[in-house]
Amino acid sequence: MLTLIDVDGRAHEVALRGGYVDGADLAAATGWTLKPVGLCRGDVCVPLLGRAVAHPDDGTRIDLDRWAGALGLLVAHDEAESVAALAPSAESRHRDLVDGKAPSLTLVDVDGNRVSFDDLSGSKRVLVTWASWCGCRHELAGWQRVQDELADSGLRLFSVALDNDPEDSRPWIEAGHPTYPVAVDAAHVTAERYGITNVPSVVWVDEDDNIVKPPTIAPGDDQFVEFTKIPSEQHHEALRRWVRNGELPDSAHVAAAERTDDEQRALAERRIAAHLQRIGRTDAAKTHLAAAQALAPWDWTVRRGGIAMTGGDPFLGEEFTSFWEDWDASGRPGYTPTT
Q1: What share of the chain is helix, strand, coil (3-state, %, to 5)?
Q2: How far apart are the first and last CA of the chain?
Q3: Is there a contact between 152 and 174 (Cβ–Cβ < 8 Å)?
């Protein structure tokens, strides 16, 4: 059997025979079925244009890499551990975002209950991302004050912890007493869909589901301003102007950085690492984490989050300190503030 981790971060068991996966299992896991017209899911069909995805002597077995390529997906493998993970290619992701609409996002909270960013559609909403491996874990109460202040003006906050285990997030959620939804995204689906590479990052979405400000760094309060070098009021005042007057800040007009295939593949490698870590295969997890870090060297959700994943110290440890010094000396890539 092969454990296949899909683009939503869910793990599926599919039969593996002679290097090919069972077509029925793959269809059950992903919804994509091989038909004469191509690969189809519901009413959507992707023509294969001569690309062979099935075994030449047995149409019931599928070449996973060719199947993924036909759908605009990238695959990371661990043959020894019999695990594979999927992530959209850079081109596929760009195509999905070209209309400027907020990607659908339905996750679970720390207790496993469904919470959805989509449910706030029709209001001005802000996606706030954080993690237990970041000082921003202390800022949920600060965001609560923002929500309380601007709720009557129509603002809705939705918070996502990019953690490896829901229990990593629990103490900080309970300490912050948020009344806004707080999700835990162990698969980092939020990071992939919204282009989050560092926390605390925020994304603004208007009443019509348009992303009006791509990810920028925005602390919830000033507890760590010496490190962030970004006063929280700088973001909060801009947020007030947008919510109350519809005025967008300068940073709203800066195009989000386009991701590369390497950066997308890093997310698939990280998904394998997280899966292997959860089942106690720490050494194998570290191999895939190292691969992810090499592919996306400035992605904090991979680099610093990975330190926490494998039991290192993401605050004062030598690995983090070395990474932080290199990143700071390189001009803090990816650390765009709200202006």
Answers
A1: 40, 25, 35
A2: 50
A3: no
Q: State whether 67 and 109 are in the same domain.
A: no
Token pair for 236? 């909060």
CA gap 210, 190 in Å, rounded: 16
Which domain covers residue 137, as residue numbers?
99-253
How far is 331 from 335, CA to CA, in rounded Å? 9
pLDDT tens digits along 8-58 = 999 999 999 889 999 999 999 999 999 999 999 999 999 998 889 999 888
Residue where a domain stops, chosen among 253, 288, 304: 253
Cα distance between residue 85 and residue 15, in whole Å: 15
Q: In what order do the strands lie in the sheet with 16-17?
A: 16-17, 20-22, 58-62, 54-55
Structure tokens at 286: 């570290």
Same domain for 112 and 240, yes or no, is: yes
Maximum distance among all Cα pairs of the chain, rounded to whole angstroms? 65
